[in-house]
């Protein structure tokens, strides 16, 4: 099983390659390599035998709100639980920081629903829309859904017995 850890600068080329792969399939937005290096501290990675197999980032917007972004698993690694594990780790980090709400914009809303997120209007996150969405070439044909989870609700849900096993999508934004 891969090790889940905070990203290091040496991981960013692999993270960039995964994001670019899914951006070419139009299931994620591309990110510049410089942006990844500048925001390395936001990323958590899944690594096995020196190879990065997945990543996710926590972008903090305020003392209460953050975005789970750039969540993806390397092609061919799907079905091993890495998407769920990375999501759990990033949400644990959000809880540790004292955040109240985490949201994600994604083309895989079913994955996030199984993780306890619910769909909400994108406009609920004006800072995100202003900072990223309005500059996106896909803004007027956006296929991403806004998904949100309250960190304290998640904590209560984790105390419940485990239900079904979750399948991992190839990627989510």
Q: Regarding quaternary structure, how should these chains be classified?
A: single chain
Contiguous helical run count: 6
Q: CATH homologous superfamily - what is it?
A: Gcn5-related N-acetyltransferase (GNAT)
The helix/strand class is alpha+beta
Shape: globular
What is the share of helical residues?
25-40%
CATH class: Alpha Beta
Radius of gyration: 15 Å
Beta-sheet strand percentage?
25-35%
Order of strands across the widest beta sheet?
1-2-3-4-5-7-6
User: Mean pLDDT, as a whole number?
Assistant: 85
Poorly predicted tracts of residues: 163-169
- CATH topology group: Aminopeptidase
- H/E element sequence: EHHEEEHEHEHEH
Into how many domains do the coordinates divide? 1
The assigned CATH architecture is 3-Layer(aba) Sandwich
Describe this structure in words.
This protein is α+β, with helices and mostly antiparallel strands. The protein has one domain (3-158): Gcn5-related N-acetyltransferase (GNAT) (Aminopeptidase), CATH 3.40.630. 32% of the residues lie in helices and 25% in strands. The chain has a 7-stranded mixed beta sheet, sandwiched between helices. Strand 3 (51-60) and strand 4 (65-73) form a beta hairpin. The longest helix has 16 residues, at 82-97. The protein starts with a strand and ends in a 15-residue tail after the last helix. The model is unreliable at 163-169 (pLDDT under 50).
């Amino acid at each position: 099983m891969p090790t889940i850890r905070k990203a290091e600068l040496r991981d960013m080329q692999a993270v960039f390659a995964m994001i670019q792969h899914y951006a070419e399939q139009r299931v994620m937005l591309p990110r510049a390599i410089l942006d990844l290096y500048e925001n390395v501290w936001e990323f958590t990675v899944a690594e096995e035998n020196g190879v990065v197999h997945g990543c996710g980032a926590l972008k903090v917007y305020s003392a209460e709100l953050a975005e789970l972004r750039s969540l993806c698993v390397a092609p061919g690694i799907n079905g091993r639980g890495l998407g769920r594990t990375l999501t759990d780790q990033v949400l644990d980090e959000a809880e540790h920081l004292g955040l109240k709400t985490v949201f994600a914009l994604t083309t895989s809303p079913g994955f996030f629903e199984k993780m306890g997120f619910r769909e909400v209007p994108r406009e609920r996150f004006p800072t995100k829309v202003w900072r990223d969405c309005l500059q996106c070439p896909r803004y007027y044909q956006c296929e991403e859904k806004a998904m949100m989870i309250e960190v304290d609700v998640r904590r209560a849900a984790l105390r419940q017995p485990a239900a079904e096993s979750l399948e991992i999508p190839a990627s989510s934004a």
